[in-house]
Design a protein that fits this description.
Blueprint (H helix, E strand, L loop, with lengths): L1 H30 L10 H5 L27
Length: 73
């Protein structure tokens, strides 16, 4: 009986201690600005991990390339 109670107490203590260590590591790494994720996709650009690609010239052009004349209606 005492062995069973001891085993349960030991396993419980190990689980709780492991959880505390993991939570402490995560909090400290976030506080220091380190993130375990080093993604390079769209989400990484949104989070500011690298600069977005500048727009090409044709994207900011005001003229419509398909229209022949702006005066025609």
């Amino acid at each position: 009986m005492w062995a069973t109670i001891g085993e349960i107490a030991l396993v419980s203590w190990l689980v709780i201690a492991s959880g505390v260590i993991v939570v402490t590591y995560i909090r400290r790494s976030r506080a220091n600005g380190r993130s375990g994720h080093t993604g390079t996709g769209h989400l990484a650009a949104v989070k500011g991990r690298y600069a977005p690609t500048p727009l090409p010239e044709w994207a900011t052009d005001d003229q419509d390339p398909d229209s022949e004349s702006d005066d025609r209606r």
